[in-house]
Amino acid sequence: MKVTGKKPETWNTLLDEGVDGVKKKWWRLISIVLLVILLFAGYYVYSMFSFLDAVNTKKPFSTGENPLVTATWEGTEQVNILFLGVDSRDESERPRSDTILLLSVNPVTKKASLFSIMRDTYVNIKGVGQSKINAAFANGGPQLLIETVQDYLDIPIHYYVATDFQGFAKIIDVIGGVDVNVKEKMVHADDGVHDILLEAGQQHLDGQKALMYVRYRGTARSDFDRTERQREMVKLVGAKMSSPSMALKLPTILKEITPYTESNIGASDLYKLFTLGVKADTSGMQTEQLPPDQFLSEEVNGNGEQVLRPDIEAVRNFVREKIGSTQQPAETGSSGNGGAQQAGGKTGGGGSNDGGQANKPPVDQTPPFDGGQRAKVVGEYVNLRQKPGTEHSIIGQVYGGDLLAIEGQVGDWYYVRTKDGMYGYVLSSLVQLQ
């Protein structure tokens, strides 16, 4: 029998054709995988920008027609973001900010601080007078609340994110719920829909049960315990969201919460905040209550309401100390001084709760600079600001006896370099030329 057809000239030719076929199959597979990745990345980015466009355009909690004005974040200084939980169940009433959380993150050290602001804090509200701080949201939406928090704490607020009960529950459901140890049974009759009933013990909470957990005020310390549980919930959600598998669900999460969310984070801010969020050290995030117990007094105001009157200056110093502890790494390597200390006077652990006074580090009297004009801090401590002017962000603190190298001057402000290598502006009247 005669076999027809072209025969390979050699076994090498046959092998070469086989290898080429395998290569083509692999390249085809790789091309398909790359195409899928590109399509998903495009969808991912589209979802994020669509979310930002929606929450910036449709603002269910805002009042008035004037555009929101907040501090500008350049991406290199401390960023402060307000997270607001809004009770918007009663459509006949203006929504109230049931939860006020302040997240402060340093883009250099990647360290973060989370503060929960007690809603019964008695402060001055522009156009309202002395009132509970959550009345700011009810009277002027996010705009007035941001102004009030800035005046109260004397720090800039750059962004806010507000969501209501449904939005919070959606977030918890999409991430698969959270595991929580409920310390005591929680029972509270509300409106028939948002009633609270949780048994004590370790359990897995879905969105509605997690909402019960962070809303309940029936414990011995009422709102103090409630804000502590809210900070706990933020850390639990942050831990779950930081996993790679959960990042894949981000488009779904954004889609679910869009109808219930409002924010001023624009597309131009997205990349900076997203990059910082990925790198931020949420595992070591310090969490605090504002005002701290030692800086408040519980009173009854003229309307018969129980309020928390804060020691304003002590609270401001407390916040500066906690935020200041994120300004410098615990160690700067072999710099010859055993590692630079964190602002706040402690290494590796933030400041103390000693009446709100800044905790002085040991003063190094050795001149840290070679030549040039120097200045000495004459007060207990001086704020180091990003730009000249008290309206600009505080990026650190220098303490009594510290020596600063003067690099320049703008009006009444010196542009200085600290012994730890930080640059910033200090008011000239608070230092003494050497």
Automatic annotation (TrEMBL):
This is LCP family protein. The chain crosses the membrane at residues 26-46. Residues 325-373 are annotated as: Disordered. PROSITE patterns: SH3B. The keyword Lipid metabolism does not apply. Residues 335-354 have a biased composition (Gly residues). The keyword Membrane applies. It holds the Pfam family LytR_cpsA_psr.
